[in-house]
Amino acid sequence: MAKIEIYDTTLRDGAQSEDISFSMEDKYQIVERLDRLGVDYIEAGWPGANPKDDKLFEKIRDLDIKHARVIAFGSTSRPGIKPEDDSGVKALVNAKPHGVMIFGKSWDVHVKKAIKCSLEENLRMIADTVRYLKGIFPFVFYDAEHFFDGFIANKDYAIATVKAAAKGGADRVVLCDTNGGMLPGRLKDIIRQLKKETKVPLGIHCHNDSEVAVANTITAVEEGIDHVQGTINGIGERCGNANLCSIIPNLSLKMGHQTIDTDKMNMLTDISRFVDEVANLGRNKHMPYVGESAFAHKGGIHVSAVMKDPVTYEHIDPKKVGNSRRVLVSEQSGKSNIIYKAREFNIDLSKNDTAAKRIVKIIKDLEAGGFQFEGADASLELLMKRAMGSHTRFFSLKGFRVIADKRSDDTEPMSEATIMIEVDGKIEHTAAMGNGPVNALDNALRKALEKFYPSINEVRLLDYKVRVISSTKGTESVVRVLIESGDKTDNWNTVGVSSNIIEASWMALVDSLDYKLYKDRVTRKKKPLQV
Predict the structure, then answer these.
(1) For residue 530, what pLDDT band results from cuts at 50, 70 and 90?
(2) Is the predicted pLDDT of residue 474 greater than 70, yes or no?
(3) 146 and 88, same structural domain?
(4) Is residue 271 part of a domain?
(5) Residue 348 to residues 339, 340, 345, 391: CA-CA distances in angstroms?
(6) Is residue 501 part of a domain?
(7) 3-state SS of 314-348?
(8) Dihedral in degrees, nearest 10, Cα atoms 437, 439, 445, 450
(9) How many CB atoms lie within 10 A of CB 149?
(10) Which of the chain's termini has less CB crowding within 10 Å, N or C?
């Protein structure tokens, strides 16, 4: 099958997404990751548009890029100005990229109303700018902005803009669904008509305003286009761009085309999560291929089938894109879910039908009361171990008291927790202050435990979430607390549920610290004896 060029515009078009502001270091790291992934082109930014992009192109020159070619994005020259005299074109040249992508107007409405020049002048600007830059750079691509809308409004003029770019020597004309309003059938028809008029190599750039950017991109490839543009995770202005994390495996794994190297396909999930992290975006766990839920199984019948043959409910092997299979445990779980999860926790339930049924019942009873173990594997593992009689808590509570004190409207509230625990028959009674009652309780529990278990000091609270399960009872409502904790080597999640938020937090805190101590014990057992 054909080689399809992958052109990434995360750092330019993707950076136009609401709530995203990449730092210089963010952009530099993303360039490194994209090159490691093996994309063919990296559109690093728009020189002259902002100082950050100018500095990035300077810094990239010192980067040891192994595969990708760095592209600078910019506009055609302005009306009435020669390309060599245009400040925007000069900025492209001064950036010294491997090549350039310039955009121009394909829709006559934009020519008349946005840049306010004649249709003929716009054609001159396109041809002359491409020609001038082609004399400087080995790669000059023309971005036919609003091409599909322009084609529908004025077919002959839209085609004329493509021919003007070809006349100027463009290596490729990229057809843009800038407004994201095309549907695959219409897009296919327009591409077929255009290919009868010109032989210039074409590319495709789709926005996702109609939720079909990936479908439109695949359709374009089916019509012979061998250059596709998009962003990691589909980030971009308004509803985003075509998502390369879906496009790449669709083209390679489903259609047999060559995109990135096969041995690098398993980097997709990692780079997806990396871009979300540096962009400070909430993770979309339901994203195809690379999302945490992409290969997650919840229904008991599904899990039973997957255990026999994953192909029954998985369209690819998740390892091919660097993802992994997950089996969820909930009120919809059957025995198969429990057995699968038990295997993850090194518990053999395959021959213990009674134990499996007992654990299923315990979980379903708890979930009926508001517990949810889908995002709390540490609590689930401890529950299973206790149900099997292979684990007891490292400490027991003898009592706690939490005081929240606010003396006046002008003073900050104060919180203090007093706690009594028992460890191996020894009682520890202590107190601690905190920034709120839950933090005070956390501090007091740690203070009480550190005398017996010094490694407790390694535990860090990474995330704390509270969700009201049912709001019909107002402030009496049951709440679910989810806590993410971590130490030097691992992260884990625990859960607690109660109509009292402090008790719910206590449950999740206890499981968090108990899991740390359990994990340490398992690690010690695995260490070889010192001779």
Answers:
(1) very low
(2) yes
(3) yes
(4) no
(5) 8, 9, 9, 15
(6) no
(7) CCCCHHHHCCCCEECCCCCCCHHHHHHHHHHCCCC
(8) -150
(9) 20
(10) C
